DNA sequence: TATATTTGACCTTT
DNA sequence: AAAGGTCAAATATA
């Protein structure tokens, strides 16, 4: 309500600026990636990306000139709704009589990493706190947070969703970084260069293997790939390759689309297999067991994911760069 | 008994 | 208003 503002509301402008900055980061990362890609279509793709970068640059310039200039500061999502309605009923009594106070900001974090894996083991100990049916997906999404959130305030989270095309695989999206110190949860960070040089080990990692020594660039790559992967949703599991661009690319196609498509084409994202997927029958007994034994409050009619294991990670989750939230986009797109 | 999961309700964002 | 993310009571399991 209260649409104060003549043209574009400041908040929207700031949001747009943020989006542009991120889009630029992603496009730049993609461009860097394309430079080392050995593919006939690479030059063409580079041209397209260059076009995107140019447009983004001009858009940012226009926005900046417009006085929006909120780019530097990220809009605070938490305070967002407050400004509008202000005091919300901080609690409500449910039918059962319990009162619930809540104050959380949703989607305050951007994914730091997304990968497809055949196992949920990643070397961290997770605690499941929710599950949700998702609109365009047949597979429910499960929500996990680090077990050490309570005792160490670790804010790492992850979302797990079975791949629609191949339900034996999971699309795992990570949010935040682990700040916990528990030995069993210390992530081993695998350098990008390694992953790139050693394809064998790259199986479980999404990496651009950036040749650049620019750490910021590498970090951005990861971040944006996560975004792109998110856009692709679970369908990308199915599309092993080939996609087609229409020539409409010339007219600034959606950056997300573009990047998602190109990434898909390059086949950078490799799904995994062969990682000790079974071999453990922890508690529910793995995949199938949960639904049957089920417990829980109502006995899952629908299947659910196996409890998060705390075994030694079969693969490692790297936590890179700054978590979305505060970002001072240091990324440079060009020398 | 303690800890983890399930699940419906609540809350935020789009 | 719908969709998605989180909370917390109820319930299972170790």
Automatic annotation (TrEMBL):
Residues 290-303 have a biased composition (Gly residues). One of its GO terms (molecular function) is DNA binding. Residues 70-80 have a biased composition (Low complexity). The keyword Cell cycle does not apply. This is WRKY domain-containing protein. Residues 70-119, 290-309 are annotated as: Disordered. Transmembrane segments: none annotated. Residues 89-98 have a biased composition (Polar residues). Keywords: DNA-binding, Nucleus, Transcription, Transcription regulation. PANTHER family: WRKY TRANSCRIPTION FACTOR 21-RELATED. GO terms for cellular component: nucleus. It comes from the Eukaryota.
